[in-house]
Amino acid sequence: MGRAIYVNAGFEGEGKGTKEAPFKRIQQAADVAKAGDTVLVSPGIYREWVNPLNAGKESERVIYKSIEPLGAVITGAEEVKNWTLYKDDVWCVKVDNEIFGDYNPYTTFVCGDWYFAPTVRHTGAVFLNDRMMYETVTLDECIKGEADPFSWQRSESEYKWYTEQDGDKTVIYANFKGKDPNKENVEINVRRNCFMPDKNGVNYITVSGFKIDKGAPTWAPPAAYQDGLIGPHWSKGWIIEDCEVSNSRCCGISLGKYRDEENDMYFYTKHVKSPTQMER
Length: 280
What we know:
The chain has four helices and 18 strands. Strand 7 (84-87) and strand 8 (90-96) form a beta hairpin. The protein folds into two domains: 1-75 and 193-280, no CATH class; 77-189, Golgi alpha-mannosidase II (Immunoglobulin-like, Sandwich), CATH 2.60.40.1180. The protein is globular, with a radius of gyration of 20 Å. It is mostly beta strands. A five-stranded parallel beta sheet has the order 1-2-4-15-17. The protein has a five-stranded mixed beta sheet with strand order 7-8-13-12-11. The protein is 8% helix and 28% strand. The protein has helices spanning 26-30, 139-144, 266-270, 275-279, and strands spanning 4-7, 38-41, 44-47, 62-66, 72-75, 77-79, 84-87, 90-96, 126-128, 131-132, 134-135, 160-166, 169-175, 186-189, 205-208, 211-215, 239-241, 244-248.
């Protein structure tokens, strides 16, 4: 019989994973949870990438459970304040690139094998009150803020954003249509994944009852590395149940391919079919 490990984002003090002194971050529990253990997560917003370290067993799973259904939110986004008015309804903010680590969604494009649209959209995204805004290719488009004629929600498509780099900072312009972003809930994607191991073989994991929201995974064609907001990274025996997964720039739940550096985006980078593609 395994142990219960507790997590509560609102706890003040030194967490030990007990009910009386829970960890503040799910990753702290993921670092120590082993086969048979259950990680019980209190309601709250957890702005982190959970990278489970240890596998379970078929008869002794590692269980991650939101105590209140959909009450614990794991998000790949961070709040952004300190916007300054640029022009008309367009505001601007500069974000230090250190926040992104080794993966900047605002320099990484949605592109690759089997992707036939122009390579002009980034894996990053801007959210206004939990609604994903529309990226533009030019700053002028952002300033105009015109509705996308192909959008299913044309009025919402008027909310635009544009990005560029300025040295070691990511600059984001956003058309908030008269709203003050410093008084609204504005977030940007900063993490690629929300709950996904960085290696294969982390087997027999259960993820239950979480809201998993906002992230910047890459395009995931059949012959490339396939990641999502949540996924087993080619591990076996996972159960993802009673979760709500939303606002991914590309894939939400990935059950797909492991990373293979020699064949990753083979056609896109080498302009010939990979051996895997030729076999098909």
